[in-house]
Each structure stands twice: as structure tokens, then as C-alpha cells.
Amino acid sequence: MISDMKKILFSLFVIAAVAGCKKDNNHIFNKSPDERLNEALAGYQATLAGAPYGWNAVLYPKGGGAYAFYFKFNDANRVQMIADINTASATTVKESSYRLKALQQPSLLFDTYSYLHILADPDGSVNGGTDGQGLLSDFEFYFNDSTTADTIKLTGRVNGSKAVLVKATQEEAQAYTGGAFDVSVLSENLSPILQYFKRFTIGGDTYDINVNPSTRIIIFTWSDANGEVQTFTTAFYYTLEGVRFQNPFVLGSTSITGLSDFLWSGGTGTLNLTAGNTPATIKGAARPLVIDVNAPQRWWQTAVNDGAYWESFAGFHVNGVDDAFGIGTLSKFYSLIYAPEYEAGVDLYAPLFINAAGTGLEPHYGGAISTPEFTPDGRAVFPILGTYGPYPPTGPAAESLGQLLIPQGYYFIQTSASTYDMVSADNAKTWITWSY
Hints:
This protein has an eight-stranded antiparallel beta barrel with strand order 1-2-3-4-5-6-7-8. It has an eight-stranded antiparallel β-barrel with strand order 9-10-11-12-13-14-15-16. The chain is 22% helix and 41% strand. The chain is built from nine helices and 28 strands.
């Protein structure tokens, strides 16, 4: 009898608990999922269009780098934008459409071609990215939960790019839309320094600084107290004041978040600037502060191991001039290549040309280079054995081959997993970038 009573009481308890749960659920979910989603979209719409002076934004593509934008949204699903992709996009306001849509999450879609689409374009020639992928950027985003009234955080729906939007001030809006956004400030101020190697000095300490405007990457290199090589790499983007780092470069109690206040001194050959909040300088140097003595042979051996070749699309940069020998002016020129072990003990240095049918690439002639001499002090010297084909005695190809063969050889600077800069050990005013 007691046992039966326990069963009855337990059953009543379960029924009461279930009934209580149902009552709570009805209280929590007093609106349908569609109603809640529509309310969220309306809230995001009000936030986007309600910023009176628009939004400062930074986009971090999955493919690397960082890009600054200015957005001004309205309630008619139109958005005006400025971007630091190039001089034109930084000074010309582009208008396109956008819409908010309920996908798996509330999402912001830029649905007509805009500056955002340039970074996502799969044609590598459009944005400097990889053919078929571009910069692995996005133009459709979902809102992150950490979004607030003043800061919107987005994640790309396809590639996972990250974007952060912060409310702009009236002064910022006027500057962006008034053509005051200068995205050449860094290259213009560094261009008087003809040497590849640049010494960055702050607070009495010196570092090599390598700036790559194409990939939006800055690399600092130095030797620590134990003689060990250290590097710090960060993406950067342009601001109205200069450039800002994605990640701060922390030096003891000093945190460098960007570079600004550039002032060139021709008398001393020095670029004066502010790094974070600290005065600093940049000067040219004939050799690296820290030499990677294994880099030349590592560059060469990488291609040997994979049976591949290194490629350059821009030729040699000399005394401040890109493609100084004009290799790109050759008819149907595609790229320069360096193929280690093209034959046993012989490397090939040659221009590649688009064939007559336009369907492939072919070398018409090339330099036959002996296996490079890798010196103990970290240089590669390229001895010539002869030539392949009817090598022209003068002109861009001849000058380019002559440059490769300088007796001083080259330092190699690895700038990514698949790129190296080959820098003249003569005076560091000549270099070429090799891509894999």
C-alpha cells in the first residue's frame, strides 16, 4: 500500500514538474522565431542607418592583410563607402546597395559590386591575391553577439573574414568624403630611401623594418640580448593620420600601435615619425641588421625539392624604379622564372612568354646558371655557364641577366611561406621579389 502511494505521489510530482516547464517555456518564448528575428533585423537596420556620421571600419580578409573602410548607410538600403585599397577608392565615394536578411543568423549583405567585392574577387590580378581565391575576403556577413550600439562586429559567411565597424565622428566623415584620405602616405615617405634595408630606431634601440604595401604586412627584425633572431609581424591599414597596426608591437613599456607624423629630412636622409606616441626614425642601410645565412640555400632547395621554379612578375627594382630594365615591356611577357636544377647542375633563368595560341607559357631563351655559390656570410652568387636559345645581346632580357650575375651576389629575405626578396649585396638599392 505504501509502495503504491509512493508511485502515485511520484507521478503527480512528474506531472506538476512538466506542467511547470511548459508554463515557463510559454513565458520565455512569447514570440515566434520569425518575430524575434525580424525584430533583430529591425534593430540592426536602425543601428546601421542611425549613425549620423557613418562608420569607420576595418576588414581582415582570411587571406591576410587589413583594409580600412568608411560606410554611410541609409534607410533605403543604399550605402556609400570609401576604402584604402588604392588612391581612387580612397578618394571616390562609391554607392551600392545592401540588405539585411535572416539566414542562419541575422546577416548584412552587400549585394551589388562595391569596393568590398574587389577584395573578394577571385581574379588575382584585381586584388593581388591568388587566382581562383582572391584575398579570401567576404561581402556577406553575419552579426556577432558582441555587437553594440557603437561597435558592430561581423564575420564573413563564406571565408570567415572579420570586420569591425565603429561610429565615426563628424570630422572623420567630412575627411573621408572630402578626399582627405591619403593611402600613399607610407610609400611616398619611404620612397626617398633607396635601399631595401631600412633601420627603425626608437628609444635608442634599432630594428630592421620591412614594409610590404601589397600584402599590408610590416615585419620588424632584431637580435635579442642572447644573439637570437627575433621578428614581429603585423598587418596594417591606413587611417586619416597614417597607418595603424592590427596588433601592437610591444617594446617593454612602449606599445607601438601605428606610425604617423611623417617628416622627411633630405639633409640627413632620415624619415622622422611618431610610432605610437614615441618619436622614431627610419634610415636606409646597405645590409640587413640580422642576416639569415641559411635563406639563400633554403630558397633554392625549396624549388628543387618540389621540382618547381620561382617566379617574378615585376622584374628588378633599381634605385627607386620598379621594373627598371623594362622586362614587362617585352611582347607577350608573362613572368621571369628561376628554375633550380633545370638540368643536372644547371639552373634556368628566363622570361616566360604567352604562346601564340594564348593557351600556355613558353621560354624563348634563357640563361644557363651554375648551382649558386652559397657564401658563409649569407649571400648567393650566380655563375653563368652559357645561354639557351637565341638570347638577345641587348635590351631588357640582357640587362636583367647581367644584373643577376653581379659578383657581389644577393641576400635573401623570406617575407612569407612562399615569397622571398632577393637583394643586391652591392648597395641594397636593387632587388627582385620571387613567388612560389
